[in-house]
Amino acid sequence: MSRRTLPIFKKLLSGGGSTTTTTTTRSVTYMPRPGDGTPRPVTLIPGDGVGPLVTGAVEQVMEAMHAPVYFEKYDVHGDMKTVPPELIESIKKNKVCLKGGLKTPVGGGVSSLNVLLRKELDLYASLVHCFNLQGLPTRHQNVDIVVIRENTEGEYAGLEHEVITKFCSERIAKYAFEYAYLNNRKKVTAVHKANIMKLADGLFLESCREIASKYPSIKYNEMIVDNCSMQLVSKPEQFDVMVTPNLYGNLVSNIAAGIAGGTGVMPGGNVGADHAIFEQGASAGNVGNEKLVEQKKANPVALLLSSAMMLRHLQFPSFADRLEIAVKRVILEGGYRTKDLGGTSTTQEVVDTVIANLE
């Protein structure tokens, strides 16, 4: 949902205007091309732990909406040593994937399947949207941050001594500014540690400055990562779009998510030139929480909102809007929330309420 539609959306949620009128206010219509309504295949990875619960929630809501997508499901788990070739073939064919969390083994020389997927498909941009949800109490208001991080090189890519390259720095900077331009965002902040990492982060900053010069209408600034962390917890409303190298972005996105309401409600995805994988935005630390699995109380909100992002990516905007509005209405009303949001509801109770709020 664009920033320009937010005032209208807030008015509708707060009950502004008459509830008895039969007139529906619509924006200027979306004119599809012939054939745009053809159902699209989406590769689905339920994943580990709570993954099958939350991906199952998405399947139910998509079915209830009669959304023009259908899923090709693959049984993949984080302890696998390699990504199954048939999974890669499916994503390359379908172009789009929805993924639950994959548990990454700690130590032992086992590669992360999440990282392998990103590198195999060259999903070079990770995007996490961290924002306040009406009705969900947080310490800070007016938080609306998009963290865009380079996804394929540097320490977090699994090669601890791999350098940052000019090519990858330029394309992530270009993606961040292009995202800001297309989404009516006003500022891009480059997060770095160039005062110490002079070669690698210096190259990253040089690339950001070059790209920034091509977007004079978008304000650009730079911030050292440790100061950025402090600024995030003290004055997060100053940030708009943030662009970062790989490792810093993982840390920054989790801080921003915690400030805005928690990782259980923040959507995200990974995108490259040809493919995209949508998943919970910030780290899915509850993937291996057996208690949540047994009680069936995992929070499906983040993946439902990521699915709305996916529907927009597939050019199904009205379905995306219906899903997003229903989820936000459930959060606003507050009757059905999982434990991480202060409630006691099960995953299924939240799903049923979202379905009941679909328009």
Give a verbal description of the structure.
This protein has helices spanning 6-13, 51-65, 85-94, 113-120, 166-182, 200-212, 225-234, 246-260, 290-295, 301-313, 317-333, 347-356, and strands at residues 40-45, 69-73, 96-99, 125-131, 144-150, 187-192, 219-224, 241-244, 267-271, 276-280. The chain has 359 residues and is α/β, with parallel strands linked by helices. A ten-stranded mixed sheet has the order 2-1-3-10-9-4-5-8-6-7, sandwiched between helices. Strand 1 (40-45), helix 2 (51-65) and strand 2 form a beta-alpha-beta unit. The longest helix is centred in the middle third of the chain and has 17 residues, at 166-182. It is globular and about 50 Å long. The two termini are 16 Å apart. The relative contact order is 0.15. Residues 15-22 have low confidence and may be disordered.
